[in-house]
From TrEMBL:
The keyword Signal applies. This is Thioredoxin-like protein. GO terms for cellular component: endoplasmic reticulum lumen. Residues 1-19 form the signal peptide. It comes from the Eukaryota. Residues 13-244 form the Thioredoxin domain.
Length: 299
C-alpha cells in the first residue's frame, strides 16, 4: 500500500513538472511512462509528440507555440508531451532516440509507422504546416460524374466515401479521416463548385459553401448522403456505421442510381463545355485559397 502511494505521488510530480511548461487549459496531453505511451499511440491515427525537459530554455519557448497548434488541431490530431527528465520516461525517451531537447515527432499512424521529426523553426505556423503535410492519406481525385463512376467501379469491393467540395483544396479533416480508415475505406475528393456533380448524383445543389460527403457500401449502387455535422466525431461515428453496415438511411438521403447513370451519359455528351467550366472554377478557387487557411476541423 505504501509503495503504491509512493508510485502515484511520483507520477503526479512527473505530470505536474511537464505540465508546468504549457499554458493553462492546454490541449497538450501528458504521457507518463510506457503504459500511457501504448494507450495513446496504439490507435492508427496521426499524433504529434514533443519530448521535452522542464529546465530546457528552448522547450520553454516552444511550449506556447506547441500548445497553440494543439488547440487548433484538436480533435483532428492529438498533441502529446513527454518529460524526458522524469525517471518514468527515461527508458521511453532512450527507445525513441532522443538526444536533445526539444524533439518533436509526428507518428503518422501511431506506433505502426516510423515517425517523422520536425526540423524547422519552432513557430506555431511552421508546426501547423508541417503537421498538416506529414499526415499520410491516399485520396483519389476523380473529375466529373463519369470519373466518380469509374472510381466507384474500380473500388466496388470496398466501402467508399467521397467528398464533393466547393473548394479545390482537400480539407485537413478529410485527410485525417482518410488516414484513420486507410485500410478500411476508399476515399476520394471531387471539385463541385457549382453543384453540378451533386445534381448528377440525384442530390440538391446545396449552398455556395456547402460540401457533401457521400458514401457507398461494398457492391452497393445507392449513394448515401451524410446529413450530419461536418466535424470529426460525428463523421467518425457515421463512417463506423458504414463499416458495420448499420447506416440509418432514414436519417441520411439516398441518391437515385438511375439519375446518376443518365446524368453520366449526358455529361459525357457535354464533354468539353463542362471541362472548360471546371477549369474556370479551379482558376478562381486557386486565387481564393491563397488568402487564408482554417485551423479548425470543419470542412
Amino acid at each position: 500500500m505504501v509503495k503504491t502511494s509512493i508510485l502515484l505521488h511520483a507520477l503526479a510530480l512527473v505530470s505536474s513538472a511537464s505540465a508546468a511548461l504549457f499554458p493553462g487549459k492546454t490541449r497538450v496531453k501528458q504521457i507518463n511512462g510506457s503504459k500511457d505511451w501504448k494507450k495513446y499511440l496504439k490507435e492508427e491515427r496521426a499524433a504529434v509528440v514533443a519530448f521535452v525537459a522542464p529546465w530546457c530554455g528552448h522547450c520553454q519557448k516552444l511550449a506556447p507555440e506547441y500548445s497553440k497548434v494543439a488547440g487548433g488541431m484538436d480533435p483532428l490530431v492529438p498533441f502529446y508531451a513527454v518529460d524526458c527528465d522524469a525517471d518514468a520516461n527515461k527508458q521511453l525517451c532512450a527507445q525513441q532516440g532522443i538526444k536533445g531537447f526539444p524533439t518533436v515527432k509526428m507518428f503518422p499512424r501511431g506506433i505502426k509507422v516510423p515517425p517523422v521529426e520536425f526540423q524547422m523553426e519552432r513557430t506555431a505556423g511552421n508546426l501547423f504546416m508541417w503537421t498538416s503535410r506529414s499526415i499520410p492519406s491516399k485520396i483519389a481525385r476523380p473529375k466529373r460524374a463519369w470519373g466518380i463512376s469509374n472510381w466507384k467501379f474500380e473500388n466496388r469491393a470496398h466501402p467508399r466515401a467521397i467528398l464533393l467540395n466547393k473548394a479545390q483544396r482537400v480539407p485537413l479533416l478529410w485527410k485525417v479521416l482518410a488516414n484513420k480508415y486507410h485500410d478500411k475505406i476508399k476515399f476520394a475528393s471531387a471539385r463541385d463548385a457549382k453543384g453540378r456533380v451533386s445534381k448528377q448524383m440525384g442530390f440538391e445543389l446545396g449552398g455556395k459553401k456547402e460540401s457533401k460527403v457521400i458514401v457507398f457500401t461494398p457492391d452497393g449502387r445507392d449513394a448515401i448522403l451524410y446529413k450530419g455535422v461536418m466535424k470529426y466525431e460525428p463523421l467518425v461515428e457515421f463512417l463506423d456505421q458504414l463499416l458495420a453496415g448499420t447506416v440509418d438511411t432514414t436519417q441520411h438521403a439516398v441518391g437515385d442510381e438511375q439519375i446518376v447513370l443518365k446524368a453520366e451519359e449526358e455529361a459525357k455528351a457535354a464533354g468539353s463545355d463542362a471541362e472548360e467550366d471546371d477549369d474556370e472554377d479551379e482558376e478562381e478557387d486557386g486565387k481564393k485559397s491563397k488568402k487564408a487557411k482554417k485551423t479548425n476541423d470543419e470542412l
